Structures are given as structure tokens and as C-alpha cells.
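Quick sanity check, ADP-ribose pyrophosphatase YjhB (NUDIX family):
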Amino acid sequence: MNYFQKILEEIKKYKPESQAEKKYKKQILNFLVNNKENYLRTNPKGHLTASAWIINRQGGKVLLHHHQALDKWIQLGGHLERGELIQEAALREAIEESGLNSLSVVKHKIFDLDVHKIPANNSQAEHFHYDIRYLLEADSKVELVKSSESVNLKWLQLNEIEKYVCEESVLRMMKKTKKYKEDY
């Protein structure tokens, strides 16, 4: 099974928990099947991205960053490198953007799916990110190292997230984390 088939199979196996995610799953699969250039930045319509939803070991906090270009609090993540699987990209991006070396994958399955529009800027036209998210955990007592992509990094209690974020997809992951924490 080649790289592309592995990605398709992983997404096909994912069972969305909401109507929004069911819609996103269809959009992502459609995008991947109908666009030859679908995971690198070479496609001006959009590309696959990988995100890390990072909880602390106790499960009560989430690490978010205030993204400099987007000017909002979101999960860490970014673009895939050539030949990189989505989970590998999520882990790499999380390390690069937080400085955390204590990261580990909680489940080797997709945690969440999202499709969102990225506004035009000086270097690229408006396009879509077809985002695959994984649940990671780390020690929240370790010092964070902010990357150039972040204005700030912060561990937030689950009940604090709504003070910082109004993004539907981030709030959806917060709800999933609360549910996960109950089973933790």
C-alpha cells in the first residue's frame, strides 16, 4: 500500500461523531481523490494539513497557541512534508511549535476532521486546509518554546477555552476531550 492509499484508508476508517465532521470527511475524500496535488502547498485550491490537539497527562488542560498570521487561538499544526504521513506531520509540527519533547500520541487514530478557509495573504491566495487532527499528550510542567508562528502559547483548563476561542472546530475538540477525560 503506497503513501496516498494509507492516508485514504485512514480517513475512510474514521467514524465522525457529528454532522459537521461527516461533511468534512466527504469533502476531504473528494479533494484527495480529485486533486493530484493534494497534500503539499503546490495546489492553490488547498492541501492536506495535520493538527495536534495536545492535552496534559492528567487530561484537564489543552495547549493552544495564538497564531500570528490568523490572529486567533487554535491548536498546533501545519503542512505536511513530502512522503510524511499525517500523524508524523502532526507530531513534528507540535514539537516545532511548542518545543515539547515529551509528546506522545494518545491513540493512533484520527481524533477530528475539519475543512477551513485560509484567507489570502502576501504570499498566497485564499485556499482551504483539509485538516486531520490527532490527540497527543504532554507534560504541562515542561517549559514551552514559542515558534515564530505564535504570538503566545498557553495551557488552558478545559473550562477556560471558550474565553479564548469561538471556532466551532476547537470547541468541538474541547467537547470530545471532556468526553475522553470521563473515560480516561
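Posting the structure with no commentary besides this: The CA atoms of residues 19 and 25 lie 10 Å apart.
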